[in-house]
Design brief:
Blueprint (H helix, E strand, L loop, with lengths): L8 H8 L2 E5 L5 H11 L3 E5 L24 H12 L4 E5 L8 H5 L4 E4 L4 H14 L3 E7 L2 E7 L7 H5 L17 H19 L9 E6 L4 E6 L24 E4 L4 E5 L8 H9 L3 E4 L4 E5 L3 E5 L5 E4 L4 H12 L4
Parallel strand pairs: 1-2, 1-4, 2-3, 4-5
Antiparallel strand pairs: 5-6, 6-7, 7-8, 9-10, 10-14, 11-12, 12-13, 13-14
Helix pairs in contact: 2-3, 2-7
The structure holds zinc ion (ZN).
Zinc ion binds next to helix 6.
């Protein structure tokens, strides 16, 4: 970077003091993470709720076959640390939602989108407005990507642009593919926006929507703005309602359940392991535990208090295990 015209040592210093949150360490998140790490942003918070599977590796390039079964946020942090040990990684294995988004994004300077659902993005949009953090949005499917940068107070927000667009349950995970080269283009644009934001040079996609279509290699730009009637960014943001005791249970692409408590916990994993050891086989890993219950059920326990439960066939069964392993959330 330092060899580039217009990039000074002071700029490098600024990047080293910048915290970027990347939401989703999947198809978009992987190439974005590699770039952010190589460039040398000081701190990278990696937020992802899933575990690595063999089918991910073709496009989720921060992982390798040894990572299968590990939480994606943890595996990405471990691999990227080898690439640039100067960067501080902060992996958080949660499913981002209305209840935890503000907690997850506290002390972050820039949000970079690698998500795959509008539900999660709406939560991020509100948290970005509440915390006044710029949000680099990207969505990619098949050969087509949309990108824009939302800056609270200066541009419209996700709701202004997307209205009430809903997730199509048919368009999840493996059902609709996405081109790895498209993901690389889109992630490069996102990181370029993050660089401009960090260096205070004015991002290129504020009030503009960029579309990329790699089926014919076209790049288009459209002026967009704030919707006068947007109920999300026209009103002062309310404090997020905390429903601290509510668990959020999500079925994942990996046919497992993610269970997140209503707030980010700081579990003492050693104490949890000691408690469970009498009854179950417990594997202690670097920043998480794996609890094997019989031959069928495998539970990954993360320090933020969320669990990935594989091998149960209902949300109720997964929730029951949460209460057994984490106990009451206070
Ligand atoms: Zn809005």
């Amino acid at each position: 970077m330092l060899a580039l015209r217009d990039f000074s040592e002071d700029d490098m210093e600024t990047l080293m003091n910048t915290t970027v949150a990347i939401l989703g360490a999947g198809g978009l998140g992987s190439p974005a993470l590699r770039l952010l790490t190589a460039i040398g942003f000081g701190r990278i918070r990696i937020v992802d709720r899933d575990i690595v599977e063999l089918s991910n590796i073709q496009r989720q390039t921060v992982f390798n076959t040894q990572d299968i079964g590990k939480p994606k946020a943890e595996a990405a942090a471990d691999n990227l640390e080898l690439m640039n040990p100067e960067v501080q990684f902060d992996p958080i294995c949660v499913s981002i939602d209305d209840e935890n988004a503000v907690d997850v994004l506290k002390q972050v300077d820039i949000i970079v989108d690698g998500l795959d659902s509008f539900k999660a993005r709406r939560a991020v949009n509100k948290a970005s407005l509440t915390l006044k953090i710029p949000y680099v949005f990207a969505g990619a499917v098949e050969y087509y990507a949309n990108l824009t940068t939302f800056i609270p107070g200066k541009t419209g927000c996700l709701q202004c642009v997307m209205g009430d667009a809903q997730d199509n349950p048919e368009n999840t995970c493996a059902n609709v593919g996405v081109s790895p080269t498209l993901l690389s283009f889109a992630a490069s644009v996102e990181v370029n926006e993050a660089l401009k934001l960090a260096l205070n040079r004015g991002p290129d996609l504020a009030n503009r929507l960029m579309t990329i279509d790699t089926s014919n290699l076209s790049f288009d730009f459209f002026d967009i703005g704030k919707a006068a009637d947007c109920l999300v960014c026209s009103q002062p943001q309310m404090k997020q309602e905390k429903k601290e005791n509510e668990l959020s249970v999500t079925r994942l692409c990996s046919q497992s359940y993610n269970i997140s408590p209503g707030k980010i916990l700081k579990l003492d994993l050693e104490a949890v392991a000691n408690n469970l050891e009498a009854s179950y086989d417990v594997e202690r890993r670097k920043r998480f535990l794996i609890v094997n219950i019989g031959h069928e059920i495998r539970v990954t326990v993360m320090p933020a208090g969320n669990l990935i439960v594989k091998g149960v066939n209902s949300a109720e069964a997964a929730t029951k295990l949460f209460h057994e392993i984490v106990g009451d959330e206070d």
